[in-house]
Specification:
The protein is of the alpha+beta class. The protein has 6 helices and 11 strands. Helix 1 runs antiparallel to helix 2.
Length: 222
């Protein structure tokens, strides 16, 4: 089965709810439903106040869109981009907003990661950590600045012991790679999250969401 945990820090304090990260489970009564997880990173000054509404909107649009996991992620992120673009068109230049987005859609053992920078994720398997960030030009700019964008997708066929970590770019840069890999390598994957939180001490605004594939793969229902 799949275990998911998260933490967020806002203004230097750990909080149960922050604007930066959210989990949006699918319908338990729908066998084809998927869960989606969203981490948002403000990319321009003043964008922070839009992040909470933005992540909730992405989660809502994803579940309303239906279809494939990649199609749902793309449509939800396009809607979020359209919303930000509408705000920016009505705003002064100094009041424009933009945000990087990391989305993860999971159905059974199938997971798709969609990123628009600034964005960071880590995939851990068999003792090795792979750092993932957008590389294609269409995905390196944050949402809200351009009419046309394309998220960078990665597919993962999850196996027992795999871990997927979504985290704020600033937090990724602050964590030393050996310490992060050591935390993800803990035999009990759920214990990795408290260790990651220890590495986040001193950060002002950040978040992390950890997905752990435990011995029996099943939909991520809580």
């Amino acid at each position: 089965m799949i275990w998911v945990g998260q933490f967020g820090i806002a203004e230097g304090e750990a909080r149960e709810e922050t604007p930066w990260v959210g989990a949006y489970p699918g319908d338990d009564h729908d066998e084809d439903a998927a869960d989606v997880y969203v981490l948002v990173e403000p990319a321009l000054p003043g964008s922070e106040e839009f992040c909470g509404e933005m992540k909730d909107a992405i989660g809502r649009f994803f579940h309303q869109s239906g279809g494939s996991l990649t199609g749902g992620l793309l449509r939800a992120m396009r809607q979020a981009n359209d919303n930000l673009r509408d705000w920016n068109r009505r705003s002064l230049k100094e009041h424009k907003v933009a945000a990087g987005v990391t989305c993860l859609a999971v159905r059974d053992e199938e997971a798709y990661l969609a990123q628009v920078g600034p964005s960071r994720a880590v995939f851990f398997r068999h003792g090795e950590a792979e750092y993932i960030a957008p590389t294609i030009p269409e995905a390196t700019e944050p949402l809200g600045l351009h009419d046309v964008f394309w998220p960078e997708f990665h597919r993962f066929d999850l196996a027992p012991g795999d871990r997927l970590l979504l985290l704020s770019p600033g937090l990724a840069e602050a964590m030393a790679q050996p310490a992060l890999t050591t935390a993800l390598a803990l035999e009990d994957g759920e214990q990795a999250l408290p260790e990651l939180y220890k590495l986040a001490r001193g950060q002002q605004d950040c978040a992390a969401l950890l997905l752990v594939a435990t011995p029996e793969i099943a939909p991520a229902r809580r």
